[in-house]
Design the sequence.
């Protein structure tokens, strides 16, 4: 599994990186990286075709386990995907802001 650390992810996010959050809807609404598109792991197969084919997809979950599996799946389909090390929990612990509430657009 390929993954990026939070420093790289923060820089890429500031430059408009495409991010999907593979946690379940209640987790996503409780706190997510700004701009992350909801794509629950349980329904990932349904959204893979909507992912951008011309840029890297950053995949995040709570701790990095689900995002690692999802990134591997996406890569196996020929897209460029990486897991964000430590997930949303590490992002928050590092002092980064989390959006909460109603979901954004799905991937």
Sequence:
């Amino acid at each position: 599994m390929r993954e990026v650390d939070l420093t790289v992810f923060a820089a890429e996010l500031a430059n408009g990186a495409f991010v999907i959050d593979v946690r379940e809807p209640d987790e996503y609404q409780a706190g997510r990286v700004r701009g992350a598109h909801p794509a629950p792991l349980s329904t990932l197969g349904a959204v893979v075709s909507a992912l951008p084919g011309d840029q890297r997809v950053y995949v995040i979950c709570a701790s990095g386990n689900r995002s690692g599996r999802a990134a591997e799946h996406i890569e196996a389909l020929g897209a460029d995907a990486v897991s964000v090390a430590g997930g949303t929990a590490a992002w928050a612990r590092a002092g980064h802001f989390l959006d909460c509430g109603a979901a954004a657009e799905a991937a």
Summary: The beta strands are 3-4, 18-21, 37-38, 57-60, 81-84. The chain has five helices and five strands. The chain has a mean pLDDT of 92.
